[in-house]
Amino acid sequence: MKPKDGLTRRDLIKNAGLAGAAAVTGGLVGPTPAAAQAPQVPARWDREADVVIIGSGAAGMPAAIVARQAGSSVIVVDANSDIGGHAICSGANIPLGGGTSVQKKTGVQDSPNLVYSDLTDWSVVQSNGAPDYRYNDKEVIRAFADNCAQTFEFLVANGVKFVNDKPDGRAGSAHGNSVPRQMHVAVLDWPQVQTGRPVDPAQRATASNGNGLMRPLEASARRIGVEILLQHRMTDIYREQPRAGRVLGIGVDTNGRRINIRARKAVIVATGGMTGNVNFRRMFDPRLTEEYCGLAGMPWSDQDGSGEIAGMAIGASLWGLNNQANETGSGLTKAGKIGCQYGYVNLTWFPGSRVFDKAGASGLRVADWQNVIMVNMIGKRFYDETGNDFSGNQYNQIKNYVPHSHVNSKNVKYAPDDFINAALAGIPGEAHNGGGPIWAIFDADAVAREKWHPQPPWVDIRQGFFFSANTLEELAGRIKMKYQRMPMPPANLNATVARYNSFVDTGVDADFSKPKPLYKIAKPPFYAAWATPVIHDTRAGLRINADCQVMDMNGQVIAGLYCGGESAGGFSMHGLARCLCQGYIAGHKAHAEKIV
């Protein structure tokens, strides 16, 4: 006799093999992007520059500009066919404070000491008990605080413009409770990577995203003579000895051709993090298996861990590991759009984008989660659909704030929102990591209420991220795709919907306390749309000191190697400020190295 979920233990074991195959060959696992062992120094160099930078995003581009402006020759390599990394796809919310010109002009009283105090405050916690700043490296934060304002003025000097005249606390998280610091970059007339064309002229001075950040920096870098080599994937970082001596340069693959680039002064790792590398990210959270394939920022750029892996191969240490698994902010997010692989709420790909063929669909943006129920891969609800992401500290989140005082955490009412944890929990009793696919189930009436268009290019039918049928049983039978490890039992889905519809009749969700369920799922056709959580931030990486020099397991500096941004550890912040500022620091410090 089968249990109530419609699956026997034998069913679970029989289907588990599909997951193993996917873990090896599917999603983002792929080949290791850098050697596992320290590479040998090449006998000859094909290219050379004073400073060699790996990555052209929010850390790499500022590093390139400041080093070149100071007089160093600079080569930037990037694996992609265009610059920008995740930053160019972002909302371009930049919490740089410490007494910027805009803060002073608008009467915001900020200072480096206040930035430092805010970002090292052990007593700031969220309603789930998770601390925002407790595990930050104080030396790294001190350097950020001392260079915050200068980094902001650097952006202004290099053509970056902002939509707001006064800093605010909107968007992002972990940028301090005391004063507003958030600025939002104007897109202006730059073509958008999301659409392939500029935004409407009426919105160019008010819309904010990363195109308005990275394109001016790119223009500035090229104008002053920074050499940018695209489709050049770093494969190795060379050191004099496998675990000793200076870093001398890097190995690169460009369309199958191997070249070696010497760095006369230093190499800067600015590769953007590791959350796209399944096996690397699972060191921090074993639940994050291959089905979490909709990484925010992809498919424009990956976060493959290549910088971290190459650094570790020559002796570098990882750092700030707890920040990665800490349940605050936007490390893991609820899908904001459904029916597509890439469902991050603040990034939508449209036809016309050069990567739309990889994105597959734009997705259906959910305005009201009352219009759907969400089920796991065996057709069972698991949580209140109106649940949210983990929260994170923003300006004035804590009223009557007393810096570094026990009263801050004592006054927080414990009220965790565990939507993400429930979605990642998987099937009770199954010895398998990862929560499996999450599907949003809805009907024709929901489509009308949301004003959705459930067909391409809005949904991805071809890759199996969207299904439809005239009955619920038929819908369950059609859900077949590479991350669906086992068939969804039709009886399960039918029973789940029937029970939910009864909650609409009574006005009470007896299972998960969804606030007054409003709409039945009854009118065909019926739909199943991919709604699996989305991975976002990398908040752990290579160990660095205040000068962004990479350090080894003994706490010693690896001479000639720097790192900044999401590839660096010790700093938990959602937003571009840490990347930009550490790139600014690393560029200055790398330039100051002696030529070897």
Roughly how much helix do the residues carry, as a percent range? 25-40%
What characteristic shape results from the CA principal axes?
A: globular
Strand content: 15-25%
Tally of strands: 20
Task: Quote the average pLDDT.
Answer: 93
What distance separates the N and C termini?
74 Å
Low-confidence stretches: 1-35
Major sheet details: 8 strands, mixed
Output the number of helix runs.
Answer: 16
Structural class: alpha+beta
User: What Rg do the Cα atoms give?
Assistant: 24 Å
What this model shows, in words?
The protein is an alpha+beta fold and 596 residues long. It is built from 16 helices and 20 strands. It has helices spanning 9-25, 60-69, 101-105, 112-119, 138-157, 211-223, 278-281, 306-313, 321-325, 356-359, 406-410, 419-423, 444-450, 472-478, 490-506, 577-591; strands at 47-54, 74-78, 93-95, 182-184, 227-230, 233-241, 244-254, 257-269, 318-319, 332-333, 337-338, 364-365, 373-375, 439-443, 466-469, 526-530, 534-535, 541-542, 549-551, 557-563. Strands 1, 2, 5, 6, 7, 8, 19 and 20 form an eight-stranded mixed beta sheet that branches. The protein has a four-stranded antiparallel beta sheet with strand order 13-14-16-15. Strands 3-4 form a two-stranded antiparallel ribbon. A hairpin with a 2-residue loop joins strand 6 (233-241) and strand 7 (244-254). Helix 2 runs parallel beside helix 6, helix 2 (60-69) runs parallel beside helix 16 and helix 14 packs across helix 15. The protein is globular, with a radius of gyration of 24 Å. The N and C termini lie far apart (74 Å).
